[in-house]
Design goal:
Elements: H1 7-28, H2 37-50, E1 54-55, E2 67-71, E3 74-76, E4 90-99, E5 102-111, H3 117-135, H4 143-156, E6 160-161, E7 167-169, E8 176-180, E9 197-200, E10 203-205, E11 211-213, E12 220-222, E13 228-230, E14 233-236, E15 243-244, H5 249-255
Bound molecules: magnesium ion (2 copies).
């Protein structure tokens, strides 16, 4: 059963997701060699609370932190720690908030200093695959249309799509139906309607698609130890064109020193 949101509810979800976008932009200005992921986590929690929100992940299923910080071969669900980021690392930061009872959820992969060109290309293709998915998130299309578009772009770069983790509906709960896989076939899956709000979140690997969960019960890594990238938008399905509730513009401005 899909929960279709009213325009007013989508307005509230836009506010929640804007707070996530702003939080990630705050972090963008801090990411450099020597910074620990735990420090980033503390800054994020403070920023979210100062802006009237509640960290959306902390305590969710027992997760201990505000952010998921996943470095290099870590795909998702990395736990912030005393690990200090190093030149050449990438770090995928996933952030959730609750604001006025509604969830925001977005992720972005950051480069730490200068990174290898092959890893930069992985990041570019992953972000593009998200944008390709968004183009299909229109009323009357099916979830498989989104999935296929993401997969096509990622695989056209020679990369592989993680299977074990998928996108999701979002609202007053962090994860609502439907599931939004990053692989699939056109014309299959749930038919999308105006008012459906989904998180599209490609997790794309440089090497093999297989992943493994660490003993901490959370961190997911690539099985071959090669890097993985992750970008996530919350998107309101609409007629003709998707309404993206997340913005990376604020992050891009920081990264490009605008
Ligand atoms: Mg997320
Ligand atoms: Mg998500």
């Amino acid at each position: 059963m899909l929960y279709l949101k009213t325009d007013e509810e989508i307005g509230l979800l836009r506010e929640s997701n804007l707070l996530v976008s702003k939080t990630l932009a705050e972090l963008a200005s801090l990411i450099r060699p020597g910074i620990t992921t735990l420090y980033l986590d503390s800054i994020a929690e403070e920023y979210i609370r100062d802006n009237g929100g509640i960290p959306g992940f902390k305590g969710y299923g027992g997760f201990p932190a505000t952010l998921c910080t996943s470095v290099n071969e870590e795909v998702v669900h990395g736990i912030p720690s005393s690990y200090a980021l190093r030149e050449g690392d990438i770090v995928s930061i996933d952030c959730g908030v609750i604001l006025n009872g509604w969830y925001g959820d977005s992720a972005f992969t950051f480069a730490v200093g200068e990174i290898d060109e092959s890893v930069r290309r992985l990041m570019d293709f992953t972000r593009e695959s998200l944008e390709e998915g968004v183009k299909e998130a229109i009323a009357g299309n099916r979830i498989g249309d989104v999935s296929r578009a993401v997969q096509n772009r990622a695989e056209s770069g020679g990369y592989s799509v993680v299977r074990e983790l998928v996108g999701h509906g979002i609202g007053k709960r962090l994860h609502e139906p439907p599931e939004v896989p990053n692989y699939g076939r056109k014309g299959t899956g749930t038919k999308m309607e105006k008012g459906l709000v989904i998180c599209i979140e490609p997790m794309i690997n440089l090497g093999r698609k297989e992943t493994i969960q660490m003993r901490d019960g959370w961190t997911i890594k690539t099985i071959d130890g090669k890097p993985s990238a992750h970008y996530e938008y919350a998107v309101a399905v609409d007629k003709g064109r998707a309404d993206v509730l997340t913005t990376f513009k604020l992050i891009d401005e920081v990264l490009n020193n605008l």
